[in-house]
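Translate sequence into structure tokens.
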Amino acid sequence: MNGSIRRIWGLLYRHLALYRRSWPRLLELAYWPVLQMCIWGFTARFIAGRIAAGPGGSAHAAALAGAALLGGVLLWEVALRSQMGVAISFMEEIWSRNLGHVFVSPLRPWELVSALLGMSVIRMLAGVLPAIGVAWVLYAFNLFALGPVLVLFFANLMMMGWAVALAVVSLILRHGAGAEALAWSVLFGLTPFAAVFYPVAVLPAPMRAAAFLVPASHVFEGMRAALLSGTVQWDQLAWAFALNLAWLAGATLLFARQFRAARERGALLSMGE
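Result follows.
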């Protein structure tokens, strides 16, 4: 076990060292989450103002609408940054033509995945925490006001991001550089079904059925309930956790299969050339 920990830390440190003297890399971690928060924050302020000024509008209703929108933006960034943290860290190994060298060492596939997940957590926190600070400073929105349940929201969204990332990595192992664009696009494609900015109830019936199979939809339904009524919907969290376990199990099996196939055909040595 000590050897495994050393190997995981060695690979993790290799990725952390990339950021030590590279301010563009450090800037990129927080750039998109902060930009998203600025854009959607001003949008939320505009919508809240229109609600408050409309017939029968109230400042309380406007504040709740703005909070639901800002909360959705921030929590969706948790899933996005978690997914991209795994996928981009893996692609760094491909771009540097280091994947073959890594597996000449005693490193096992699960140790590689563990290091990528660790890097994902670091990248996610480095991106989302500044955005949370911007939301508090510019819009007086404190995501931590949700309380301890926020930890469960974060955990479920991270698990979903990891499942999608492992599926993307599996496709890269199978199809090579031609599948790299999926690292930036797959999770965005799930946004309509994730109910980030609206409840599942507004979707057409066929889309509604698909949305309930997406773990994030249950997280965001729970987030809106916590913001609007102060209640924790444990059933939604249980559904999100169960679906995440299923997604992770399927993605892990797919990764193991594609990794084995890539090793057998020698793709680990030639990938990136």
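Note: Residues 2-270 form one domain.
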